[in-house]
């Protein structure tokens, strides 16, 4: 899957608190992708099929595939969506008048390096197969190969999506909870993205196997891994935009196997002060500000909140029989934290979920802040640098003397949790005599 090229906006936003409180998956051989309506309903209070895109997301997909403009249903922001679709139609018409460049500069020797195995997944743009490396550093290793047909790249947008996905995979190497990227190749017919093969199945499968609910301790182990990898992505300037249980795979069938985040087909690079306005993602996990067409990294935090809610109670926080109904629920409804099993869930866990599913994105925690929340706090865990610190320092340096004095006064009213988070961030920068050098900041 892919995303539209976003139009970046930088509207004025309120000065944030230092601690605001209050496309096919590389599936393992033998594991089939979850069909849209295969989830047993008896496991959940509400049926829990993997989410289908909303109607305007389908419209975007149709443009990428070069199809006709589909009918659009009554959804939130309908006027804005219709306007966007019209603009897209004009752009597509312009694209049709000139030939598309479908060369990517990737290696041309895929057949010499890899022996393709059987198909393990299929999506809108292509399919995923297992393969064995025939030569080189990884000789003999089994990998996943995402095969994207060039024939289906009928617009400049779809071509740029593939370029960006590979660029992001290359930029994000090095985290234990990220699927490893090995190679990208192409020939006249296809693009081949070679990645780590995860043989433990989707997080969604494990949720279902547990009858739809995790214990708090087991949920914590999952959420910590999600937060860690998302914090890493955000620090590298990448917003995923499609976080959901289907996009987390376990490396093996072992109960304690680590998870890997996959599928960066909807992801994009973003600067800390930018806002995106294209509506992408999966309906049940999309944040309110995405529907309002002005969002940033906080949209990923909302999606993590939805996943956490599902882990703890086995049902979705926002549900309706239609996609437009799901959007109305996301925009207007509050998650139910009263019915069973929520009375038996700890106050810390409920507070955690509330902070993530706050409709005001400015009041959500960042991924790093969440790792210091009382529900997850672990003094032995290494806390990564938060992209928020970079943003706040940048804003402080640009602030007027009066604003700096006001911030200094406000800092004296910080709570213990807020001070702990800031102290951990400060220590990461290895200060000398209470001062952090620019070199230290760059190194971290």
Account of the protein in words:
The protein is of the alpha+beta class. The chain folds into 3 domains: 114-196, Phosphorylase Kinase, domain 1, CATH 3.30.200; 201-396, Transferase(Phosphotransferase), domain 1; 399-443, no CATH class. Helices cover 37% and strands 11% of the residues. The protein has 15 helices and 9 strands. It has helices at residues 55-65, 78-96, 110-113, 156-171, 203-209, 216-235, 288-291, 298-313, 323-332, 347-356, 367-371, 387-398, 401-411, 416-428, 438-443; strands spanning 114-122, 126-133, 142-149, 181-186, 190-196, 238-239, 248-250, 259-261, 268-269. A 5-stranded antiparallel beta sheet has the order 1-2-3-5-4. Strands 6-9 form a two-stranded antiparallel sheet. It is globular and about 65 Å long. The protein starts with 54 loop residues before the first helix and ends with a helix. 40% of the residues are buried.
Question: Nutshell version of this structure?
Answer:
With 444 residues, this protein is α+β, with helices and mostly antiparallel strands.
In CATH terms, the superfamily of the largest domain is Transferase(Phosphotransferase) domain 1
Supply the number of helical segments. Answer: 15
Query: Biggest sheet: strands side by side, in what order?
Result: 1-2-3-5-4
User: How would you sum up the major sheet?
Assistant: 5 strands, antiparallel
Pattern of helices and strands:
HHHEEEHEEHHEEEEHHHHHHHHH
Query: How many distinct beta strands?
Result: 9
Q: Please tell me how large the radius of gyration is.
A: 22 Å
* Overall body shape: globular
Q: What would you say the CATH architecture of the largest domain is?
A: Orthogonal Bundle
Assigned CATH class of the largest domain: Mainly Alpha
Mean pLDDT reading: 78
Helical content class: 25-40%
What CATH calls the topology of the largest domain is Transferase(Phosphotransferase), domain 1
| Whole-number total of structural domains | 3
Low-confidence region ranges? 1-56, 68-92
Structural class: alpha+beta
């Amino acid at each position: 899957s892919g995303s539209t090229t976003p139009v970046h906006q930088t509207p004025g936003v309120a000065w944030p608190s230092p601690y605001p409180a209050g496309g096919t998956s590389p599936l393992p051989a033998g594991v089939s992708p979850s069909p849209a309506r295969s989830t047993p309903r008896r496991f959940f209070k509400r049926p829990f099929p993997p989410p289908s895109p909303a109607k305007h997301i389908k419209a975007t997909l149709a443009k990428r595939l070069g199809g006709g403009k589909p009918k659009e249903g009554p959804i939130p922001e309908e006027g804005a969506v219709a306007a966007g679709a019209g603009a897209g139609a004009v752009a597509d018409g312009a694209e049709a008048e000139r030939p598309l460049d479908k060369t990517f500069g990737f290696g041309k020797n895929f057949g010499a390096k890899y022996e393709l195995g059987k198909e393990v997944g299929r999506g809108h743009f292509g399919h995923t197969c297992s393969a064995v490396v025939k030569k080189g550093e990884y000789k003999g290793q089994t990998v996943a190969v995402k095969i994207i047909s060039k024939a289906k790249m009928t617009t400049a947008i779809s071509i740029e999506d593939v370029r960006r996905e590979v660029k992001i995979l290359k930029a994000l190497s090095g985290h234990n909870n990220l699927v490893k990227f090995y190679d990208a190749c192409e020939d006249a017919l296809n693009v081949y993205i070679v990645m780590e093969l995860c043989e433990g199945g989707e997080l969604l499968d494990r949720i279902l196997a547990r009858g739809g609910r995790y214990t708090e301790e087991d949920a914590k182990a999952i959420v910590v891994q999600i937060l860690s990898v998302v914090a890493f992505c955000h620090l590298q300037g990448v917003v995923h935009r499609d976080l959901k249980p289907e996009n987390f795979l376990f490396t093996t069938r072992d109960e304690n196997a680590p998870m890997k985040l996959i599928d960066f087909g909807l992801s994009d690079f973003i600067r800390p002060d930018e806002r995106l306005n294209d509506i992408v993602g999966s309906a049940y996990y999309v944040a309110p500000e995405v529907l309002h067409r002005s969002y940033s990294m906080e949209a990923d935090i909302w999606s993590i909140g939805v996943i956490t809610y599902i882990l703890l109670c086995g049902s979705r926080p926002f549900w309706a029989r239609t996609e437009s109904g799901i959007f109305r629920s996301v925009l207007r409804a509050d998650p139910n934290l009263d019915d069973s099993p929520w009375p038996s869930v700890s106050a810390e866990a409920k507070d955690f979920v509330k902070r993530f599913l706050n409709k005001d994105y400015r009041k959500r925690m960042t991924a790093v802040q969440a790792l210091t929340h009382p529900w997850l706090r672990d003094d032995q865990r290494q806390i990564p640098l938060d992209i928020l610190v970079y943003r706040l320092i940048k804003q402080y340096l640009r602030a007027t003397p009066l604003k700096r004095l006001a911030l200094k006064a406000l800092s004296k009213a910080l709570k213990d949790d807020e001070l702990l988070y800031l102290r951990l961030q400060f220590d990461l920068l290895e200060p000398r005599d209470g001062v952090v050098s620019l070199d230290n900041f760059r190194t971290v």
